[in-house]
Amino acid sequence: xxxxxxxxxxxxxxxxxxxxxxxxxxxxxxxxxxxxxxxxxxxxxxxxxxxxxxxxxxxxxxxxxxxxxxxxxxxxxxxxxxxxxxxxxxxxxxxxxxxxxxxxxxxxxxxxxxxxxxxxxxxxxxxxxxxxxxxxxxxxxxxxxxxxxxxxxxxxxxxxxxxxxxxxxxxx
Amino acid sequence: xxxxxxxxxxxxxxxxxxxxxxxxxxxxxxxxxxxxxxxxxxxxxxxxxxxxxxxxxxxxxxxxxxxxxxxxxxxxxxxxxxxxxxxxxxxxxxxxxxxxxxxxxxxxxxxxxxxxxxxxxxxxxxxxxxxxxxxxxxxxxxxxxxxxxxxxxxxxxxxxxxxxxxxxxxxxxxxxxxxxxxxxxxxxxxxxxxxxxxxxxxxxxxxxxxxxxxxxxxxxxxxxxxxxxxxxxxxxxxxxxxxxxxxxxxxxxxxxxxxxxxxxxxxxxxxxxxxxxxxxxxxxxxxxxxxxxxxxxxxxxxxxxxxxxxxxxxxxxxxxxxxxxxxxxxxxxxxxxxxxxxxxxxxxxxxxxxxxxxxxxxxxxxxxxxxxxxxxxxxxxxxxxxxxxxxxxxxxxxxxxxxxxxxxxxxxxxxxxxxxxxxxxxxxxxxxxxxxxxxxxxxxxxxxxxxxxxxxxxxxxxxxxxxxxxxxxxxxxxxxxxxxxxxxxxxxxxxxxxxxxxxxxxxxxxxxxxxxxxxxxxxxxxxxxxxxxxxxxxxxxxxxxxxxxxxxxxxxxxxxxxx
Lengths: 172, 563
Prior knowledge:
The complex is a heterodimer. Chain A is mostly beta strands. Chain A contains one helix and 16 strands.
């Protein structure tokens, strides 16, 4: 069983999947909204006190301090302070609601930043297809199933309205 | 000596004054407004009395309330700290009239330096170099233009009654003079009810240099070297250092003598600072005397080993200064960085709110004067938003900068936006590193500054781990509320101690190890810490140093309630 957490740093959206292995060790998948490649990390962690813990990543121990205020997380790590917001999963549900449709629609008004596939490409379930920037955040449209790209409706750079079809995929 | 004194202030300066008094065996009385029930001075003092309404005018500026508390609590003297009533001649007189002792300059001296125009005239008469200008009362525009041309352009029109930049105009040429003169008068009249203005030469590229002075009631006046406070924002200092990169021994001696002469000209007693501007040709001009203990007095303490607050108290109690001018030795280099709850990206606008967790560095010759409790304090909108002062001292400027870098990395106030990221960048700016610091530094190099920082994977990882581990974190009374991140602290009861030194060296070792796994993160670490551990070995002073301020001072480094 893995747990999923979504965060927002004001510029990008991130998804972190955490699977507990045994005791205090985890396998973590980080899906970055800023276009950087997805990472799988092995980590073990230990609580030190309120908001204080350490984790070990590739034999390096990090000490970390986190404070929370509602959804906001204040994180002190490696001599730097970060402020990120935890985004509830329900806010992400629009992606799943579209899953049954062969043509994928824009979640909100925005701009097409990048097309990652072209018509005729074979795609796998979960593969990123299009990067859309909306409300200063980048969102990726992922393939809901394995299939072939039939049609891409807009070129890169185009402004789009909410709920317009962006790409069509034929399942199979 | 006094048995009990009242400290008429709040926050870090109140608890700092209390610390020195307690070391002298003097009982201390703090005052607090309704929002300050958990403020640092309340915990630091032996007794704390309420002032009620948090509005400054009803609390820390209310003369009668404070004097009544002093009398009621059996205090014999009042220390005003800085700000609030510290330079108020009327308050000083009231304190004395109530039969109490005022720990500060005499009301006469406060009055003499408080009127800026009068003070300049006094200084001019005493042959102290003042900024060329016209301070007479003429309103004849033709005559004023003639005076303006004598002074030369650019020049500054300033409101006689003013402050805070209102009624102030920079005139670049004689064509602009009349219209700017009229508008300055209008603005001054509207803001202060008094349209009088004076003219002064305007300097664009200057350093702000001040000399710490101490004077007693026996006519002894000494100076304790200079502080450079050129780096400012919103006309307020944020970074101070001593010694200044611009002064050599000759200039220091010369300016120090002038500072003493300026203090003598107004029969100055107790602690104060004589402020000068220093132009690019090393000409210096008297600006004003700050008749109080200043925020940045700490760096003078760090290099001279003299506890200025103790001397303030001793002088007020009628003791003679035993310290001779030739005994004052500046040792090494000290920096003070002021940590504010503010947003550097929005014109340094103050921020307010709850601080959930606070971490600060502990180490030899690193001093943290905290303005809010470590166990989660509130930055109130009623008062100044300075959270803390971070002071480091080392053998030379380079080492002090390296130490400050490390100290800033280990300082964190979680819950409000602070100027820490901004301060870190100042610390890496080539002009700061080379000592090329002037009062236009922030505008010239950090205009419309934005923090640019990506969120590394480690942070996202930490955020997710926090979510799953939070239920297992202890609640309630928790020693880790104040975390000493640095393993150097031998007395730390917190868990970091077990983990060994988490200093510059260990970070470097780690950053070497994590090539490939951290990617960008490694580069970031290298950028912030360009030195190897072996280069910093000598930056710690030996404990046997008789001038080390940490031998005699220190009780206020940590609030006693944290132990």
